[in-house]
Amino acid sequence: MNVQEAIEKLNDLELKEFAYGHAMGILSYDDETVAPKGSGIPRGKTMGVLSELSYKLSTGDEARGLLDFLKEHYDELSPEDKRRTDLRDKSMRELRAIPVEEYVAYTELLNDASNVWREAKNKSDYKLFEPYLSKIIETQKRFAGLVRPDMDPYDYCLDQYEEGLTREKCEEFFGALRRRIVPIIEKVKAAEPIDDAFVRRRFPVEDQRRLSRALMEIMRLPEDNCVIGEVEHPFTTGFSKYDVRITTHYYEDNFLSSMYSVIHEGGHALYDLHSDDRFCFTSLEGGVSMGVHESQSRFYENIVGRSREFIELIYPEIVKLSPEMGKHTPEELYRAANVALPSLIRTEADELTYPLHIMVRFEMEKAMIGGDIKTSELPEMWNSLYKEYLGIDVPDDKNGILQDSHWSGGGIGYFPSYALGSAYGAQLLHKMRESFDVAEAIKAGEIGKINGWLEDKIWKYGSLYKPSELMEKAFGAEFDPKYYTDYLERKFTEVYRL
Amino acid sequence: MNVQEAIEKLNDLELKEFAYGHAMGILSYDDETVAPKGSGIPRGKTMGVLSELSYKLSTGDEARGLLDFLKEHYDELSPEDKRRTDLRDKSMRELRAIPVEEYVAYTELLNDASNVWREAKNKSDYKLFEPYLSKIIETQKRFAGLVRPDMDPYDYCLDQYEEGLTREKCEEFFGALRRRIVPIIEKVKAAEPIDDAFVRRRFPVEDQRRLSRALMEIMRLPEDNCVIGEVEHPFTTGFSKYDVRITTHYYEDNFLSSMYSVIHEGGHALYDLHSDDRFCFTSLEGGVSMGVHESQSRFYENIVGRSREFIELIYPEIVKLSPEMGKHTPEELYRAANVALPSLIRTEADELTYPLHIMVRFEMEKAMIGGDIKTSELPEMWNSLYKEYLGIDVPDDKNGILQDSHWSGGGIGYFPSYALGSAYGAQLLHKMRESFDVAEAIKAGEIGKINGWLEDKIWKYGSLYKPSELMEKAFGAEFDPKYYTDYLERKFTEVYRL
């Protein structure tokens, strides 16, 4: 075998890995969007078979022999193939440490857990979900110990979503945020409240669907490769640059909720839709980490979507669909879309208090993975953290610990990416402004200008660089959360006329 | 290995086959219902990988060794395992005759062909679709020659959908139908026309969706295991008895179209939902042939759904959703739902002229597979057959040769099942009446009584018996198309007061 043959084998292997992941992804997407409630049994069987297959493919003799060869010839490889080799080396070590039966059993557990979580949330009954969460936590701890016995188990969890992120870095980051954000929140609380009752007027679902289509057009999301589905808890799945699915949930009495979820998920989708063509069906296609992914989604949702200029841009569309809204000025809508108040639901939270929701989950996850808290005590811990961080009482589990789907899907360690992504986004804005007037571009509806800049600095690279490396290249500097806290202070001082 | 171990291996093998089929089925369903238009490239890749895998699993050394063992110990097997062995023996012979590359290439061809057919139909442009149809025909001929060189190639095609069906049997069957049906159609044409303009009044899609839900309830389709999707060309996919999808298409000016497509697909779904539990995830789960499948769907659509009693049953629901319809009596609606007139579109055709649409396709398929007609001449042949059989002019390919999806999916030999199924259904009615008053049960909304009878005679057996064996057991006699022609004559003499 020569290097060229090895790369062909690698392409073939990665195509197969793509195919299994694609098939499992479509099964999950179908589950979340349209599958009948009772379809869990066959889906569990199929997921079990496919995940075993996928495991064996990625860890089998052939894959191992190929990896050994690539490592021996590392110096002869292109930068792209070096990165693929590194990624494969890392995941091979992880996968081979986990016995195949446990890997398969975990996939099946997650399939069941998602279904049970949905039911538990509907019934606001944590007890239904508790045994599944308990098993997920145990499995995560066990996998952490098997894969990286040298590492703090929660650091291992964080690293799954953001290569190199640790509990310590999070603590430092969240500490800095909290010190700057809490005083702003205090000032906001003391300021004159903003009237936002009018945005909760009835906005029929059919009209919200029209608004979603208009938003997708404004964001330049190509309808041939990106469609929107309706789900309980919105998410984005990118199967390839040819097929990305965003989702939303419509509430008739809160059109801003779906509007901002569409913009948020649209940001994820843009990232997935713009990997360089040469990465198609390889491990380098698509976003590199959840932190970088969230930096894109939260950039569009907040920095773009909640700007005065964007509100002015979308205002005529909103008034066309809901003439009642025309009784209020764009400025009133802008302020209503930026009401900052401690609240119960993370995905509905404003930009300012949002990081506190993440800090609650960070504390919870540390306790789950690192501490010795019983799963039965988790709702109480959740509720008391909401009291401590946000000063509010949680009325029930549906609006408390059961609100997010992440843990039911095994996503422990994911949440910090949202806050990190928000901070990345603010630093990207700072840098972008050196190239052009961002506010002016939004005002003119030239979102393509923003897309072009991000494609050039982030999207096209897929997973070619490590997250921190990619971001530093884009920033032209080291990551610094002060851009984020400065941004928040500036914005909310202005919105609340502090 | 002893017999018990062999059966465990067989169960495991069939579970894997189920899983691959399930994954590919969900990918297709997603394609038909919600996938973005441009998603064909990744789906083609994944389908290619999965179909190769599936082929290798079903034809590999392990599967062959197992089959040899089962054949050696055939006498020791249960009737169920004997049937599984027979089915596997048949499909092994078929699959092994086809080289894997050709099998994979064909799967990819069909994926592309479906997408192109949709576009061609939309644009009413046969030329777009022609090269794909040409390749499909060539491949079908080639596969027939490889698998069964001893057999007439079109007989091979027919046998794929109805074990044991031949061109000769079809010719005899269609001959008998035509002799009896054509004179009835002539009388109907001479009779006083029925006024059915009122059923084409606007019926909003949202209200039609409500009607679909009511129909599913009346038919006892369990919502936990059966959901409805919206597509261009309605179909049913049964992934397992836990998950069956029916689909429909809503036309605002023709609510009967979706009403009868829901009832038709609902009949397929009931069959798939009621295999015996012990057949789950084995080759015996689900319907045995397309002929038997269509016997169920067309039984519900026509014999039940277009009966006077069913119209009386659903009438209040229709009037509730569309009060305008209340200006007409149930009797008027009954007659309007049974207007028998030669028409362009098979799926919209009435019960009486329907078999003529099938005969056109039968003639087309014989020419495609057995004759030496050029694909460029097929639209002309289609149009002249519609003139000859139905006496009507085809205005364009959209309403002509491009109307059905079957050929784009490789389904040459499928159509005769529809007519055969209709005839099976009439003989089932005859037999069912010996047990209870079917009209009375429908009138009383006791569809469960009909479901129970069919479950007992047909559904629960899954694929345990050959189609002809299963039907003869149910009929307690040989198949005889006279029950069908008698039924049609009685019904249309009465509807048209001949």
In words, what does this structure look like?
- 2 copies of one chain form a homodimer.
- In chain A, 64% of the residues lie in helices and 3% in strands.
- In chain A, helix 6 packs across helix 7 (153-161), helix 9 (205-218) packs parallel to helix 10 (255-273) and helix 16 (416-435) packs across helix 20.
- In chain A, strand 2 and strand 3 (243-248) form a beta hairpin.
- Chain A is built from 20 helices and 3 strands.
- By secondary structure, chain A is mostly helical.
- Chain A has 2 domains: 3-150, no CATH class; 167-495, Neurolysin, domain 3.
- Chain A has a 3-stranded mixed sheet with strand order 1-3-2.
- The termini of chain A are far apart.
- Chain A has helices spanning 3-33, 40-59, 61-72, 79-97, 100-123, 126-147, 153-161, 167-190, 205-218, 255-273, 290-304, 308-321, 330-336, 354-370, 378-390, 416-435, 438-443, 447-457, 467-475, 482-495; strands at 226-230, 236-240, 243-248.
- The interface between A and B is large, with 43 and 43 residues.
Architecture of the largest domain in chain A, according to CATH? Orthogonal Bundle
Work out the largest interface and the residue count of each chain: A-B, 43 and 43 residues
**N-to-C CA distance of chain A:** 69 Å
Tell me the number of strands of chain A: 3
- Class by SSE composition of chain A: mainly alpha
**Tally of individual domains of chain A:** 2
Produce a short descriptive summary.
With 498 residues, chain A is mainly α.
What is the strand and helix layout of this fold?
The structure is a homodimer of 498-residue chains.
Chain A: H1 3-33, H2 40-59, H3 61-72, H4 79-97, H5 100-123, H6 126-147, H7 153-161, H8 167-190, H9 205-218, E1 226-230, E2 236-240, E3 243-248, H10 255-273, H11 290-304, H12 308-321, H13 330-336, H14 354-370, H15 378-390, H16 416-435, H17 438-443, H18 447-457, H19 467-475, H20 482-495
Parallel strand pairs in A: 1-3
Antiparallel strand pairs in A: 2-3
